[in-house]
C-alpha cells in the first residue's frame, strides 16, 4: 500500500490527479498567472514561472478541485504582489530577524525519519512581558516601506518565507532519505504548551491566530504534523474553541501527547539523535539556540560555499538547479543589503 503522505505528490499522482494538474496549468496560463517552460535549444530553456510541486500544493489543499485551487492560488499571487512579500524578506534587518525568531517556531537544524525539518515552539515561554517587548520592538524597528502590511505581520511573514526559501528546499536537496524523488515541502512541529494557562493563552490568542491564518491562507500544505506537549489540565476546553482557527485537514495533523507518551511517540517519527534532550532524545538543543545542523545538511552548505558554520543568520535562499547548489544571502545590515 502506498504511503498516504505521498498521495498527490510528484511521482505519486493518479491518472485523475495528473489530468487535474494539466488542466490547472492551462487555467492559470489562460488567466496569465502561469507560464510553462520554454525550450530555446538543447542547452537553453526558460523555466516555468512555478514548479509543479508548488502548483500541487494548491491542488491538494483544494482536494484537486480546480475552482478551489484556483481561488487560493489567485489570492496568494495577488497578496504576494500587492504586499511586496519578496521585498519584505529580502530587505529584512538581520538583527531584527534574530529578535523575531524568538517568538515563533524554531528550526532545530534536524529532520525526521522522512527528511522533513523539525521545528520546536515553546508557547509557554511567551509571557506578557516578553510579548509587550516584542510588540514595542516591532513598532520601533525597521519595516519595508514597499509593503502596506503592518510591522508585526511583516515579521511573521519573514519567518514563513525563511522556511519556504531556505529550510525546506535545503532539506529537500538531501538525497539520502526515503522517497527522495519527492520534494520536501512541509515541517514537523513540536509545540510545547507546558504551563500555559487560560489567561496567558488569551493574551497570546491574536499572536497565535495570526500565524495560523497566514499559514492556511497563503502557505498551503506546509504542515506535516504537530505534536502538542505539556497540555495543562483543562486545556482541551481551550482547544475546543481554538481549533476553529484551523481547517479540518490541519486539525487532523495535530496530536496531543500525554507525558508518558512523549518520547515513545516522537521516536516513531524522529531518530533519538534528532530529538531534543528535553523531550527524551539526545540532541543538545534548546529553544532559542541556533539550528544544530546534521552532517548531511552541513555538508550541503559547505559544498555550496557556505562556511559560516554553525549557521548564517537572517534572510537566506537555497538554490538547487541542475546540480548547481548555492546559498543566496539577502537581508540588510545597518540599512544596507548584504
UniProtKB/TrEMBL annotation:
InterPro entries registered for this protein in UniProt: CRAL-TRIO_dom, CRAL-TRIO_dom_sf, CRAL/TRIO_N_dom, CRAL/TRIO_N_dom_sf, PI/PC_transfer
Protein name (database record): CRAL-TRIO domain-containing protein
Domain CRAL-TRIO: 96-287
Annotated organism of origin: Arthrobotrys flagrans (Nematode-trapping fungus)
SMART domains: SEC14
Amino acid at each position: 500500500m502506498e504511503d498516504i503522505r505521498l498521495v498527490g505528490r510528484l511521482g505519486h499522482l493518479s491518472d485523475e490527479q495528473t489530468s487535474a494538474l494539466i488542466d490547472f496549468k492551462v487555467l492559470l496560463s489562460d488567466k496569465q498567472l502561469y507560464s510553462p517552460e520554454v525550450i530555446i535549444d538543447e542547452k537553453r530553456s526558460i523555466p516555468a514561472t512555478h514548479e509543479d510541486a508548488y502548483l500541487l500544493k494548491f491542488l491538494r489543499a483544494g482536494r484537486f478541485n480546480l475552482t478551489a485551487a484556483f481561488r487560493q492560488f489567485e489570492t496568494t499571487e495577488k497578496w504576494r504582489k500587492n504586499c511586496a512579500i519578496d521585498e519584505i524578506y529580502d530587505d529584512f534587518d538581520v538583527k531584527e530577524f534574530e529578535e523575531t525568531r524568538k517568538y515563533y517556531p524554531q528550526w532545530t537544524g534536524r529532520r525526521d525519519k522522512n527528511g522533513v525539518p523539525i521545528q520546536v515552539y515553546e508557547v509557554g515561554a511567551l509571557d506578557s512581558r516578553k510579548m509587550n517587548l516584542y510588540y514595542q520592538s516591532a513598532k520601533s524597528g525597521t519595516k519595508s516601506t514597499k509593503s502596506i502590511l503592518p510591522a508585526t505581520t511583516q515579521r511573521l511573514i519573514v519567518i514563513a518565507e525563511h522556511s519556504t526559501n531556505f529550510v525546506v528546499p535545503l532539506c529537500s536537496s538531501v538525497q539520502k532519505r526515503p522517497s527522495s524523488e519527492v520534494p520536501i515541502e512541509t515541517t514537523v512541529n513540536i509545540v510545547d504548551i507546558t504551563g500555559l494557562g487560560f489567561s496567558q493563552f488569551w493574551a497570546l490568542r491574536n499572536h497565535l491566530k495570526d500565524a495560523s491564518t497566514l499559514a492556511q491562507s497563503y502557505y498551503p500544505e506546509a504542515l506535516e504534523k504537530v505534536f502538542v506537549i505539556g497540555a495543562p489540565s483543562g486545556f482541551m476546553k481551550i482547544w475546543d474553541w481554538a481549533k476553529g482557527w484551523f481547517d479540518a485537514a490541519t486539525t487532523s495533523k495535530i496530536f496531543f501527547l500525554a507525558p508518558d507518551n512523549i518520547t515513545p511517540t516522537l521516536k516513531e517519527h524522529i531518530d533519538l539523535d534528532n530529538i531534543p534532550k528535553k523531550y527524551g532524545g539526545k540532541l543538545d538543543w534548546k529553544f532559542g539556540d541556533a539550528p544544530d545542523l546534521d552532517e548531511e545538511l552541513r555538508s550541503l552548505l559547505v559544498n555550496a560555499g557556505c562556511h559560516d558554520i554553525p549557521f548564517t543568520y537572517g534572510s537566506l535562499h537555497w538554490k538547487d538547479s541542475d546540480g548547481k547548489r548555492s546559498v543566496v544571502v539577502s537581508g540588510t545590515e545597518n540599512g544596507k543589503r548584504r
